[in-house]
Amino acid sequence: MRYETLNGLRIPKIGFGTWNIGGGSSADRSRDVRSLAALRSAIDLGYTHFDTAEMYAAGHTEELLGRAIRDSGVPRESLFITSKVSPEHLRYDAALKSCESSLRHLAMDYVDLYLIHWPSAGMQLPETFRALNRLVAEGKVRHLGVSNFDLSLLKAAREQSESGILTDQVPYSLSDRSYVRNGVLEYCRQNGILLTAYSPVDKGHLKPGKALQLVAAARKLDPYQIALAWLTAQPSVIAIPMSEVPTHQQQNLEAGDLELTPNELSQLN
Question: In whole angstroms, how far apart are CA 149 and each of 21, 42, 171?
Fold first, then answer.
């Protein structure tokens, strides 16, 4: 697995997203057996970066992730766990409570990365970051970041974070390059910030264009693997695909090691 390294921190190019594990916007406990099997499979395959949020299944996703990790016996310190505070909790006291709730659900003392999940109208970034900076100072959060922030908001967040911004997590794929066009990717590269691509294969609905089909056919690989490899070939970019199917999880993980040629990259670009 290839990694991105920032200030001595190594983060794998391919992580594991957990949206729809354990439910959607609310918990669906009837899916727990399947959800736990998916998480355990990902851990067994060697994923070490897991991305979750308090919004996912109303906290139940965090509970399932924590349980799967405990059951695995994998040392906590060998994993990189990301969670997020919801937009309705972007106030000082509410942000503190959200983090405490996430830690309780995960049954962990800290998360490696804590993100503002979505910006909200009228949010007070100074007040929110006062809480987030406190969480870092108390050791409950190791690194801070944002998600779905455009360029102006990313700049504003960077000014408020005492420990810097590790990432902006945004939709990015072969078919969605909006955060290239709006300048976020280039700003991240210029300022030591990672861009974390969510929905990197359009939630499994990526429609392979001619170039992707040609590259995949020549390589005798799944087009989704090539699409992920295109992302991970880019500096300052990591991706968090999700699948409950072990064979697809393995293929996603292997995409982090695929080396595309300059000609292949040119075709895809």
Answer: 24, 28, 11
CATH fold group of domain 10-206+236-246: TIM Barrel (3.20.20)
Dist. CA 119–CA 148, nearest whole Å: 7
Condensed to tens digits (0 to 9), the pLDDT of residues 60-90 reads 999 999 999 999 999 999 999 999 999 999 9
| Two structure tokens written together for 164 | 């810097």
Q: Which of 182, 204, 179, 206 is nearest to 194 (CA)?
A: 179
- What does the alpha-carbon distance between residue 77 and residue 151 come to, in Å, rounded to a whole number? 33
C-alpha 2/C-alpha 201 separation (Å) is 19
Enclosing H/E stretch for 215: helix 210-219
Bridge-based pairing of strands 49-51 and 80-85 is: parallel
Domain ranges of the chain: 10-206+236-246
Q: What is the pTM of this model?
A: 0.97
Q: Residue type for 105, please? A: H
